[in-house]
Amino acid sequence: MIRPCTNADFDAILAIINDGAQAYRGIIPADRWKEPYMPADELRHEIASGVSFSGAEAGGSLVGVMGVQPVDDVILIRHAYVQTNLQQRGVGSELLTHLVSNAPRPVLIGTWKTASWALRFYEKHGFGLVEGDEKNRLLNRYWDIPERQVETSVVMADPRAQAEIVQKDLPPREDGDDGIDIFNL
What we know:
The protein has helices at 10-20, 40-48, 91-101, 116-124, 132-142, 147-151, 159-164; strands at residues 2-4, 52-58, 61-71, 74-82, 107-112, 128-130, 153-157. It is of the alpha+beta class. The protein has a single domain (2-165), classed as Aminopeptidase, CATH 3.40.630.30.
């Protein structure tokens, strides 16, 4: 069962994030890893910044969490984690499908470029990979992350975001610029 998380779920959300994040140990750059992966103060900051979590419940306990954060004209999927012992059993798919189907705006996801299983997971759910300068533009526009994380991440875009947000093959402007940044006009 998917349900909105409440303040009473804070400890469970934190535990699931830090347990589920173990899949990234040794995959993401060592300078981006920390123990715990997400300290409690960081989770509080994320929630205060507008991330609201939904959880997958089994047997009366949360077993997976995924956040959404409205930012300007998009919805970001943030902090998607499933308990290690339940990964690859459909919990993440159930959460993602629920959140995307209820998203009132295009959806973007940022993830580590070296997490190949995460890229395959999001592609399986209709998200397209955004790389290069456009990836950097989107990460700098919609996320508040350090430059090093921008360098080591990718963006995945749902079909609405691919059609409405991601700039594709814009012709060069006559003044020699390589495109128009529609968000900075």
